[in-house]
Amino acid sequence: ITNHFWARNFALVLPMPGVRVLVLNTSAYHGGAEGELEHGRVSGRTIAAIERQIAADREIAVNILLCHHHVRPLRGLWGTAPDEEFMKKGGELLGMLTNRSASPWLVLHGHRHVPNLEHSSDPACTVIGAASFARQIPGRFNQFHVIDVSVDDDQQQPLKGTVQTWSWNITGGWQRRPISNDEEGFPPECGFGSSFHPRALAARIVKFLGSTP
C-alpha cells in the first residue's frame, strides 16, 4: 500500500467490511514545475487509474476520500483574496468518484487551518476540513473530531452522521467547548446528511419548542 501511494499517488484501503478509503497524495507534483508548491494537484492519469480500480471493486456502503489539499476553492474565509491553493482537477475527481459509486463520498482534508463542513448534491458528497493541532492561530481553537457515520439504504441521502469535537486551549486543555462564532471552529456537536428541506426543518424546530422563545 505504501509503495502504491508513493509510486502511483494513491492507495485504496479497506480498513473494515463495508468501508473503502481512497488515500490520495495531492502533493505529488510539488517537486515539479514552478508554482506547484502553491496548490495541490491530481492528474488525469491518476483519476483514470483510480476509476479503473474502483470499477473493478464491488460496491461499498461507505466511501471516504482522505487527502491533504481541499478539493474545491474555499469561499468566505480569506476576505477578497481568491483561494488558489485547492487541488487542481479536484472537481473532476469528485465527479468521477460519485459517478462510479452508488453511495456518496465523505471527503476528509486538511491544508487550510480552518474548519470547514459542506454538503454537495452534485456531485453527492460531504466535505469536512479540520484545523491542525500543530499550529495555533489567534481566534481559533485547536480541535480534534470523532465522526460517526450511519448508512440507511432506504433514504435518498444514505450518508449521514455526527461530528463530536473537542477543543484545546492552554488554560483548560481538551474540552467539549461551546464556540461563539463559526471562525473559532466546530461546535461540540454537529451533523451532516439531513435530507430535510430547510423550511421543513424550521417547522419541526418551531413545533418542538412550542411557545418557548
Describe, in plain words, how this protein is organized in 3D.
By secondary structure, the protein is an alpha/beta fold. Helix content is 20%, strand content 32%. It has helices at 2-8, 44-56, 90-100, 198-209, and strands spanning 10-16, 19-24, 40-41, 62-67, 87-88, 105-109, 116-121, 124-129, 142-151, 159-169, 173-175, 189-192. The strands form three sheets. It has a six-stranded mixed sheet. Strands 9, 10, 11 and 12 form a four-stranded antiparallel sheet that branches.
Shape: globular
The overall pLDDT, averaged over residues, is 81
Count up the helices: 4
Number of strands: 12
Q: pLDDT below 50 for ≥5 consecutive residues: which ranges?
A: none
A few lines on this structure:
By secondary structure, the protein is α/β, with parallel strands linked by helices. 20% of the residues lie in helices and 32% in strands. The strands form 3 sheets. It has a 6-stranded mixed sheet. Strands 9, 10, 11 and 12 form a 4-stranded antiparallel sheet that branches. Strands 3-5 form a two-stranded parallel ribbon.
